[in-house]
């Protein structure tokens, strides 16, 4: 009796095929992780809010979709380019060592090319498919985030203030995408997002201050490790945000329901900041972080629900 061995499966070939498939999946996952989908989602929420709040009458859903596509591509590309520029820093911090570039799951050159394509593609998409003004505003985000905020983190704690500027512009992108013009009301949304980012970013920096110190970043909790200045800044900005968060009613962006909601939501955020100031604990800093993550979607949701 004889066997036709050619008909039998080759275990080596099957193993190689599985290895290649696994490697491909890991690379795809690496590219997705490079774009920071959760942060992109938060950016798109504020962009969508700006678009909706600026719309008079029926929403142009096709234009809305184009705005989100262009904004999402740009946001994912910029966040990836930031990781490319900071890959040496990320390799020094335990919280970032497993990102695709420092972990070696992606090559720096291919990540750079991928993110440049996303960023440029998103900016061009907004410019030519939506309108040039939206493309211009999002280009300000790209330039200020990559060429001002990112390098400043290595030299001065003022980077937090500078970084809050590109972070506050997404609702402006949505606003001008819908109206093709800048009006005074949009700067209320900008101010809310600008002030929100300061306690949010400082809480993160306080929680991971040892990591940031090891990487040589000059954030406020690193420069003043006792945390006193950080806690003061958190409370000051939470208090400022509490007041500015009420302005959409005064500027006829939203109505009375929003006003009451903003009092409650802003009060919750402020209380977390005061608790952090009094206790100076990591637990309290995490409360500030969690409160900030609740504040932003809730405040824009209530604004959209009670739009005038």
Global shape: globular
Give the tally of β-strands. 0
Largest sheet: none
Note the beta-strand portion.
under 5%
Q: Ends: how far apart?
A: 87 Å
CATH superfamily membership of the largest domain, which one? UbiA prenyltransferase
The helical percent reads over 70%
Q: What would the CATH topology of the largest domain be? A: Tetracycline Repressor, domain 2
- Average pLDDT level: 93
Task: Please identify the top-level CATH class of the largest domain.
Answer: Mainly Alpha
Written description of the protein model:
This protein has 308 residues and is an all-alpha fold. It folds into 2 domains: 29-181, Orthogonal Bundle (Tetracycline Repressor, domain 2), CATH 1.10.357; 184-308, Four Helix Bundle (Hemerythrin (Met), subunit A) (Up-down Bundle). The chain is built from 15 helices and no strands. It has helices spanning 11-34, 37-54, 61-85, 87-90, 108-130, 132-152, 159-168, 170-179, 186-207, 209-214, 220-223, 228-244, 247-250, 256-279, 282-305. Helix 7 packs across helix 9 (186-207). The longest helix has 25 residues, at 61-85. It starts with 10 loop residues before the first helix and ends with a helix. The relative contact order is 0.10.
